[in-house]
Amino acid sequence: MTPEGLDIVHHSEAGRFEAWVEGLRCEVDYTLVGSVMHITHTGVPRQLEGRGLAAALVQHALQWARTQGHRVRPVCSYVEVYMRRHPQWQDLRA
Hints:
Low-confidence stretches: none
Strand content: 25-35%
CATH superfamily: Gcn5-related N-acetyltransferase (GNAT)
Number of strands: 5
Distance between the termini: 33 Å
Helix content: 25-40%
Shape: globular
Structural class: alpha+beta
CATH class: Alpha Beta
Largest sheet: 5 strands, mixed
Strand order of the largest sheet: 1-2-3-4-5
Mean pLDDT: 95
CATH topology: Aminopeptidase
Radius of gyration: 12 Å
Order of helices and strands: EEEEHEH
CATH architecture: 3-Layer(aba) Sandwich
Number of helices: 2
């Protein structure tokens, strides 16, 4: 499966975006504090690494934050690096 074909589901009550690939869950976890989205964890099973799945999930989460008017605090190191490498998301930084 390619990142473009991912079926990403938002579980707002759990603070999670997730996609199932080959029977395995990939995820981005967050908490909302006021209007700031603290992205705390990005997880992709080892056997699925290197396919761009984490990047696709993070991009989806950041786009959601933008449409909701949230700022983002990248607590997760992966998200910190992703946002630094993709300047189009810098305006969301809390």
